[in-house]
Design goal:
about 130 residues, 4-stranded mixed sheet, 2 helices, alpha+beta, Nucleoside Triphosphate Pyrophosphohydrolase, 3-stranded antiparallel sheet
Length: about 130
């Protein structure tokens, strides 16, 4: 089992920033999902999510708050997923380095997106927490 650390940035309109994965991504190609990825050996989930967020968005997290940790079993194997939340600071810019796009998503738009399966329920619960 390996660890995954992901971030859900949210804005003042209570929308979450999601990544549109490339069609050739090794996991969940073409789907929308969370930014983040595997932690490195010896790396805490918090350090991993900060590194991944900077690598993927050039965005430095200020105070990511651990919202949830859960075990996921699917076609990609068994993983422990750490989900962090942080309010987006609009004074900082976002520069996409991974995926084919990104989108701020309101709860009402979730049904219109092809989302990573295990992230759907997590995302629904997150809207109630911000």
């Amino acid at each position: 089992m390996w660890n995954i650390a992901v971030i859900l940035l949210y804005d003042y309109k209570k929308r979450f920033l999601l990544q549109h994965r490339t069609d050739d991504a090794p996991a969940s190609p073409g789907k929308y999902g969370f930014f983040g990825g595997s932690t490195k050996a010896g790396e805490t989930p918090e350090l991993g999510v900060k590194r991944e967020c900077y690598e993927e968005l050039e965005y430095e997290l200020e105070n990511p708050r651990l919202f949830l940790s859960t075990i996921v079993d699917d076609e990609y194997g068994r993983r422990k997923v750490y989900v962090f939340l942080e309010k987006y600071n609009p004074d900082k810019k976002l520069v996409l380095h991974e995926g084919q796009g990104m989108k701020w998503v309101a709860r009402s738009e979730m049904g219109n997106l092809d989302l990573v399966e295990y992230q759907i329920d997590i995302l629904k619960n997150m809207y109630n927490k911000i």
